[in-house]
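in:
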């Protein structure tokens, strides 16, 4: 079990890290934990043979304070990730680097 750390500025919603979605990258090499409470997407190397997770370098993508990322989906060509935020209404487009997470 991995307990992410962090918090955000929105009282009552961001006192601590709490993932709202966890997914495997399109190539199966990484696991991403979309965390509303910490305003981050935590990225882990994923060993599908053992199920082991190891923090990526960098270990997370930080969002602007108070945005509250909630859900993520990859584009069909796996070059982009789209993240919907809950506390500030936005859709954020991220470029995905499949080689490095």
């Amino acid at each position: 079990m991995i307990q992410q750390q962090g918090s955000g500025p929105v009282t009552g919603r961001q006192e601590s890290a709490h993932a709202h979605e966890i997914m495997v990258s399109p190539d199966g090499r990484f696991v991403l934990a979309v965390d509303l409470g910490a305003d981050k997407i935590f990225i882990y190397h994923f060993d599908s043979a053992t199920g082991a997770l190891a923090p990526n370098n960098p270990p997370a993508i930080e969002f602007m304070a108070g945005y509250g990322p909630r859900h993520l989906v990859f584009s069909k060509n796996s070059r982009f990730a789209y993240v919907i935020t809950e506390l500030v209404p936005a859709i954020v487009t991220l470029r995905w680097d499949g080689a490095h997470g």
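note: Strands lie at 19-24, 30-35, 40-47, 52-62, 69-74, 80-85, 90-95.
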